[in-house]
Amino acid sequence: MTTFGEINEPSSRTAWEDWDEVLFTENYIDLRLEKETEVPKQIDTLIILEGKYLFDCVRAHNELELVNASPEVNLRLFKTKKLNNYVCMIRDYNLILSSEIVEMLKKYINVSTDVIGVLTKPLVEYQVSELVTHDYVIRCLSTSKPTRDLDKTFPHLEQPNIISGVSAGVLCWREVNDKPAMVVVCYIEHPEEVQIQELNNLLEKFKVIPHVEKTHRDNLLNSNLYI
Amino acid sequence: MAQVNHWKILTDCDFTGYTLVIPSVAVGNVGQLAGDLMISSLHMTKVGIIYSPALIPISGYDPYKIGSNSISSCCELYQCAERKVVILLLRAPLVYKYAKQFLTEVVDKFKGQNIKDVVILTSSFAHERKHIMTSPFRYVVNDLCLYTNKLRTLDWVEHETSGEPVKILGGGFASLLFEITKEKSVPCLLLYKFASEGDNIPDAYEMVQYLNTVIPLFNDSDLFSQLVPPVSWNLMYGGPPPKNIY
């Protein structure tokens, strides 16, 4: 929520470079993954988890094995221990770098049978004509070619809502290539207070987290007491 | 990193003699809103999707058809065969470092398809309008522009240049694209409106009206009755206020 009197520009208008000032140089740094690891020939599902909520959901568990990373954009790439799935966790990155991050991940995206993106957004950004009374709302976006078994799980995201960033880029790239992908977007008001069962089930299904009953979120660093 | 732009053409089209309209991502998104309005009102058909690292990715369902299951992306191509107009609509800003290569490819591609000309729609900061009693619209043309004589008869105000290249403050990639069309010898008209961030829907209506006087897009009868706002304009400024604020 915004503070009373705060000027709140539509979010679509805040992420752009200032083209009027000549502040740019040609010394751009290309993003790259830290290690030159071999990319597998095939991945069953590539799961992209965006945002702090999902980061906190996953980090307390040991179901993943770190494969690669790109610290400049807080990206870490894991392999699930139990299935042939890869998990890309990313948070607090510059939106301008989104397409470049997608380029960096393309070798993994292209060999994946399915790609599932999961991201959280503030509930206040969910635009519908009715009043939202729930603590959270889950919607999805899917390419023309549906993913294997998630297509009917969540309702479609209503217009005029949109998503942006890495998940959006991956979805568009897969659409352009006629390959399946889906993005699950969770609008949530108080991420630190809510456990979202549907997301936990989804993560458990792909063996990103252990059995749902055993899951917990590590809120230690979120507590005012310890900061 | 090598920049590769992917063009997914959904329907094969012959763009010979077409006008290519490219709205720039600029202050108040006036050009883009005008593009939206034209696509929606002329019932234009999506004929292509472009994926490029130059584009900040966004995605949602078709902004012109409620309940649609068809994904929309950041950069799409819409065609109106009847009016021989094609719109390249960008829904997010370009990434500066990749912009020139992307825009050059766009111009080359359409030049190769024998388009008639390019029209760039954009906006500039309202505070840059020095003569406030004049029209809020300005135009810039290159030497090959097909509408120069017509524009003179319309008595429109030309952009005040202070040397080359053309600079439109707040106009996003419009100036860069204009320079590319000049370099590639493609006829080009750049139309912009002084605007501020806010409710820019009236600006979009006015821009379509202005454009329609140069390039006939709609029938001669009442223009505004022919304009259909797209679904994506619903809730532009949010949903109903939460109950707990009262």
UniProtKB/TrEMBL annotation, chain A:
Record keyword Signal present: no
Keyword Chaperone: yes
Entries under InterPro entries matching the protein: Proteasome_assmbl_chp_1
BP terms from Gene Ontology: proteasome core complex assembly
Keywords assigned: Chaperone
GO MF term list: proteasome binding
GO cellular component: endoplasmic reticulum
Membership in a protein family: Belongs to the PSMG1 family.
Official protein name in the record: Proteasome assembly chaperone 1
Species of the source: Spodoptera frugiperda (Fall armyworm)
UniProtKB/TrEMBL annotation, chain B:
GO cellular component: cytosol; nucleus; proteasome complex
Family listed: Belongs to the PSMG2 family.
Highest taxon in the source lineage: Eukaryota
Organism: Spodoptera frugiperda
GO biological process, one term: proteasome assembly
Function, in words: Chaperone protein which promotes assembly of the 20S proteasome as part of a heterodimer with PSMG1.
Keywords annotated in UniProt: Chaperone, Proteasome
Protein's name in the database: Proteasome assembly chaperone 2
Subunit annotation: Forms a heterodimer with PSMG1.
Upper lineage: Eukaryota, Metazoa, Ecdysozoa, Arthropoda, Hexapoda
